[in-house]
Amino acid sequence: MTHEARFRRQLTSFALIAPLALFLAFFFVVPLANMMSSAVSDPVASEALPNTASAFKGWDGASVPSAEVQKMFVRDLRAINDPELFGDLVRRLNSAKSGFRTLMSKTRSAAEADENLADLVAVDERWAEPAFWIAVRDASRSAITDRNLLAAVDLMRDPQGNITSVPEGISANRDILVRTLFTSAIVTICCVLLGLPFAMVAASVTGWRRQLLLAAVLLPLWTSLLVRTAAWYILLQDNGLINSALEFLRITDGPVSLIFNRVGVVIAMTHVLLPFMVLPIFSVLISVPRNLMPAAASLGAPPIRAFWLVLMPLSMRGVVSGSLLVFMSALGYYITPALIGGAKDQMISGVIAYYATGAANWGMAGALGLVLLLATITLYVVYLRLSSEEARA
């Protein structure tokens, strides 16, 4: 093959994969890069308060800043002509120290009335507290910060720059992250307990019976997640079909609380994610020779012993793959906990949605998303490591 023909062949191959590469770049790489940059970037205060940032040099952080610092702060406030920039500045400062919403509005009005204002304590006594000035200094210091990443796991920097835990009651991101991991683990275990025997039954039969069992698993995947969650919202009500059936069968004397709690969330998420457990296990089991279990029985192994020593080890590759799929998918669930769960059952994706749409704090949303992404990547790396070790063995 000549060099020209090889080049033409490579160009054709590149043209075939170019649409996929562009799709991945625009809809995966670029959003991911924006999320990561928003997690560590904090340009609002440094853009809105350029003179104040330089004036803070030499301030000890323990007393009220000098009149020169306050003059620069007033000058910067007067120079902000964009209402959106001022609103972003207020949100940024208020996220660091509560009380800035009213304080900044009052201070800006006073600054517009007197361009030579140099005593902000006279405007509001809160300016006599160094904590408010520390928040302004830290926000305007640099456009790159680890503040959001630390806050995502309930950490912060004290006035000396040391990393410490946030005061109790200020944030619960760490607790919500632990709750997300715990709920995802419970859902994964439930999917294993239900999916493994179902996949074994599906792999042991043939013909229309297998098709029927697989259709029962695949049909939910063809239905919208919102529709499936809404269906569980109806079924799990106190007067829903499940409680009505339990009372009709005299299993319970009254309705069992199945909604707006952790039980309902686990039930709904298990149903939604069960196909991701069944299909990997099924794909492994259909490759297992059918004569292994009869051979074990012919050698005197009871059914349970043959299952644990023969079939279970062979199916573990599918169980691990399914568990990884289910767990990683469960980490990012938002709709199901939001509709079925209560206030103490919301997962980390709900907090990300709040920061992105409710508080308009894209930095915190990006930081929490980055923490979730790192957890997912870590699990995937562990899975690849285990898979490679199993292949070498």
Automatic annotation (TrEMBL):
<comment type="similarity">
    <text>Belongs to the binding-protein-dependent transport system permease family. CysTW subfamily.</text>
</comment>
<feature type="transmembrane region" description="Helical">
    <location>
        <begin position="307"/>
        <end position="335"/>
    </location>
</feature>
<dbReference type="InterPro" id="IPR000515">
    <property type="entry name" value="MetI-like"/>
</dbReference>
<feature type="domain" description="ABC transmembrane type-1">
    <location>
        <begin position="177"/>
        <end position="383"/>
    </location>
</feature>
<dbReference type="Pfam" id="PF00528">
    <property type="entry name" value="BPD_transp_1"/>
</dbReference>
<feature type="transmembrane region" description="Helical">
    <location>
        <begin position="263"/>
        <end position="286"/>
    </location>
</feature>
<protein>
    <submittedName>
        <fullName>Putative spermidine/putrescine transport system permease protein</fullName>
    </submittedName>
</protein>
<dbReference type="GO" id="GO:0005886">
    <property type="term" value="C:plasma membrane"/>
</dbReference>
<feature type="transmembrane region" description="Helical">
    <location>
        <begin position="181"/>
        <end position="205"/>
    </location>
</feature>
<feature type="transmembrane region" description="Helical">
    <location>
        <begin position="362"/>
        <end position="383"/>
    </location>
</feature>
<keyword id="KW-1133">Transmembrane helix</keyword>
<feature type="transmembrane region" description="Helical">
    <location>
        <begin position="212"/>
        <end position="235"/>
    </location>
</feature>
<dbReference type="GO" id="GO:0055085">
    <property type="term" value="P:transmembrane transport"/>
</dbReference>
<keyword id="KW-1003">Cell membrane</keyword>
<dbReference type="InterPro" id="IPR035906">
    <property type="entry name" value="MetI-like_sf"/>
</dbReference>
<keyword id="KW-0472">Membrane</keyword>
<keyword id="KW-0813">Transport</keyword>
<keyword id="KW-0812">Transmembrane</keyword>
